[in-house]
Amino acid sequence: MTTTGHEPDAMPPVLACRAVRKEFNGTVVLDDFALEVAEHEVVVLIGASGSGKSTLLRCVNLLEPISDGAIHLDGEHITDPRVDPDDVRRRIGMVFQSYNLFPHMTVLDNITLAPERVHGRSRASARTHATELLERVGLGEKAGEYPDRLSGGQQQRVAIVRALINSPRLLLLDEVTSALDPELVGEVLSLIHSLREEGMTMLLATHEMGFARQVADRVCFLDKGRVLEQGPPEQVLFEPEQHRTRQFLQRIIDAGRL
Amino acid sequence: MTTTVTGPGGEPLPPGPYRPSQLQRERESYRRRQSVRSVLLAAVSTGVVGLVLILGIVGSPGWERVKETFFDLEVGLDALPAVLTGLWLNVRLLVFCAMGALVLGLLVAIMRTLRGPVFFPLRALATSYTYGFRGAPLIIVLYLMTFGVPGLRLGGTPSVLVLGGIALVITYGAYLAEVFRAGIESVHPSQIAAARSLGLTYRQTMRHVVLPQAIRRVTPPLLNDMVALQKDVGLISLAGPIDAIRAAQIATAQSYNFTPYLVAGVLFVLMAIPLVAVTDWVTMRAARRQSAEGAR
């Protein structure tokens, strides 16, 4: 499961970040950052607030320009200025911490907006597909509701469906359970779990260490804009080699979250 | 071991359906007494102020003459048909100017939000327009358009009515542009990030995500500007077209009595009432929706 794809004949990794640097007004957030995500792999980013997890996800989706380095998607250099960012985003799905559903549209319209406007699908086929996916996540009867009538967990499941319907090559999940009440976290996590079973390639940032352990093929601990330590979850979470990783995990254990 | 249910005062409560406790009943009766007192106080003070005002005006030394020149029922009724005919012009002008100003305002607001060096000229044009025309007095713009432009003696110059309408549209367009821009900027950046992450282009994001939310949010202030525009449409009389105010002026010149102005004024107020009521209703609804969002 840890194919790095360096052999010339192998398929290129779905995502490859090479020496990525990101600065905000002189503050370095990502520094000589390297990461690869292979097809069907689930990579979980952990690390303290400000370690660069969210920034990395936003850079991969070209919502933020990078300051140096390169990001490749399926072997294509997507941080090349000649590349159309809209075309890249069509192939990547993203789910945000605060759901970001469109409040003026029904659940169904939220989901069918991109298939209809971006992917040129017919209204009928987009609606059928959306209804099907909603039913699969247990929200079939919510199709006509507006987002503010839904609980946080339901909204987040809709947001995941909204990203999934476009069959992305890569799904980015940015602390998708951090805004949820504890009793609603489970429904979102089990959905992500089932996506993993279906082979969706995912890169996610989370504070849920228990979940990271269940879902990750590989856990990366980010510190000061770099991957300080990475490996299988059991190793990184329970036998970390780096002092800072141990420190971070100790704080999480003290807070009762592992 | 059985626990007895007790009220807030420690007294045992009888079993059965909920009944307000003694404490709650006292609280409610105190509130009732208080509100009766405040209503009475408000009514009395309003009555006293009203009476003083009426006595002050009616008892003034010049009241008889003012009554004759401003409140002559006969002169008012004589002028009514002409003023009403003029008012129809105001109504038509209002509809066209409102539509023109809304479209212009929205376009300018969108131009001001465009990013990137390619759009610098458009952005600069839009910005200087809103700076200039929000400061320019409407009367001056009106004079420039209705007297200045025909003075150029160009072929195909439209009528004074159209020129006056254009003056209203460009003046109000500048205000409305700022209202629209405030609405556009009030849409949280995370909404734009979500739309772009789905692959929508900047245009599609504006069209399907930003503008629908922005316009909904600024509808109350937009309607308020429409009420203001409704009054200012009467300024067209300065340029010559016979609207309600011009008709009143003509009637005044014939009768040496100012009542026709009062008639026109009352008609303007009557015309504004429905729009004002709609504005209040929309504002209230928006406030309720906002507080519902906040409570979530």
UniProtKB/TrEMBL annotation, chain A:
Q: Give the matching CDD domains.
A: ABC_HisP_GlnQ (cd03262)
Designated name of the protein: Arginine ABC transporter ATP-binding protein
The organism named in the record is: Nocardiopsis ansamitocini
Fetch the InterPro entries from UniProt: AAA+_ATPase, ABC_ATPase_HisP-typ, ABC_transporter-like_ATP-bd, ABC_transporter-like_CS, MetN_ABC_transporter-like, P-loop_NTPase
Q: Name one GO cellular component term.
A: plasma membrane
Q: Main site of residence? A: membrane
Q: Which residues form the ABC transporter domain?
A: 15-249
The membrane topology term of the UniProt record is: Peripheral membrane protein
Q: Which family does it belong to?
A: Belongs to the ABC transporter superfamily.
Assigned keywords, A-Z: Amino-acid transport, ATP-binding, Cell membrane, Membrane, Nucleotide-binding, Transport
A GO molecular function held by the record: ATP binding
Cellular location(s): Cell membrane
Q: Which PANTHER family match?
A: AMINO ACID IMPORT ATP-BINDING PROTEIN (PTHR43166), GLUTAMATE_ASPARTATE IMPORT ATP-BINDING PROTEIN GLTL (PTHR43166:SF9)
- From the record, what ranges are coiled-coil? none
Domain of life, per lineage: Bacteria
Record's Pfam families? Answer: ABC_tran
TrEMBL record, chain B:
Q: Where are the transmembrane segments?
A: 39-59, 79-110, 131-152, 158-177, 258-278
Give the way it sits in the membrane.
Multi-pass membrane protein
Naming one, the record's GO cellular component terms include: ATP-binding cassette (ABC) transporter complex
Domain named ABC transmembrane type-1 is located at 87-279
Please classify the protein's predominant subcellular localization into one broad category.
Answer: membrane
The biological process GO terms on file are: amino acid transport
Q: Does the keyword DNA damage apply?
A: no
| Family according to the record | Belongs to the binding-protein-dependent transport system permease family. HisMQ subfamily.
Name used for this protein in its record: ABC transporter permease
